[in-house]
Amino acid sequence: MRKFTTILVLGSILIGLPACEAVKEAASTLNTGTSTTPSLTNSEVISGLKEALTVGIQNSVNLTSVTDGFLKNEAIRLPFPQDALKVKQKAMDWGLGAQVEKFETTLNRAAEEATKEALPIFKDAILNMSISDGFSILNGGDGAATRFLKDNTTSKLVAAFSPKVKEAISKVKLTEYWNPIITKYNNAMSLTGGEKINPDLNQYVTERAISGLFQMVEKEENKIRKDPAARVTDLLTKVFGSIGK
Asked: How many Å apart are CA 96 and CA 102, to the nearest integer?
């Protein structure tokens, strides 16, 4: 009887093994099998990146091209030109503090005015950019798409943006606030034998305005990467929702 019982138990175990293996296989399939989420094509990734940058630039221009868009944003505000800080100090010593303040305010007004013309320039750069490996940019972490855009478009943007800045400087009459300060300084340098300074305000505003815009674009890109609510289209949801899956 004991032998019969032993044989019966062994038989039950052997019969049950295939079922166990089937359960394990099914569990393995559930854990590592194909996802029901459609895989991304390289075309979708590239389109998604372009769309994210377009949304980021639209939002950035909307934020910076208004009154105080640069002036009241400490992250991108244009300060007195770095290579003319000694001019600022002298002007303050001479009691020209009000003129210095007006000049700095108008510097930022020039940037705000110029960025009104930036949107089509940036959009053209985005639409025409070629991405050899969209997935590496998608998975490149915070600011990856913005860095790619910056590396591949900055020189063209400077060339296209500079005349817009020149127009803006003229419109807000920046030189009217700058000339009295720099003239007084350079006259003093003529008497003391010091070095005269007159920085290129057009170049300064151009470079700082573009830098500020890129900074805002990166902020918007990172928002899309991290916040599902910022993915305002189905494509953005699909592309950036795939990160980390």
From this structure: 10
Return the axis-axis angle of helices 118-127 and 201-226, rounded to nearest 10°. 60
Residue type, 92: M
Dihedral, 84, 89, 90, 91 alpha carbons, nearest 10: 90
Q: So where are the chain's domains? A: 1-33, 41-241
- CA distances 33 to 25, 38, 243, Å, are 11, 13, 18
Q: Which residues contact 107 (CB under 8 A, 6 or more apart)?
A: 78, 80, 174, 201, 204, 205
Closest C-alpha among 130, 213, 127 to residue 164: 213
Query: Which amino acid is it at 125?
Result: A
Residue with tokens 């591949």, as numbered in its chain: 152
143: left (phi over 0), alpha (psi -120 to 50) or beta: left
Enumerate residues 6+ apart whose C-beta is below 8 A from 80: 87, 88, 100, 103, 104, 107
Q: Give CA 76 to chain center in angstroms.
A: 12
pTM of the model: 0.75
DSSP state of 124: H
Q: What is the pLDDT of residues 105-151, one digit of tens each?
A: 999 999 998 888 878 887 887 777 666 667 778 888 999 988 888 88
Residue type, 215: Q
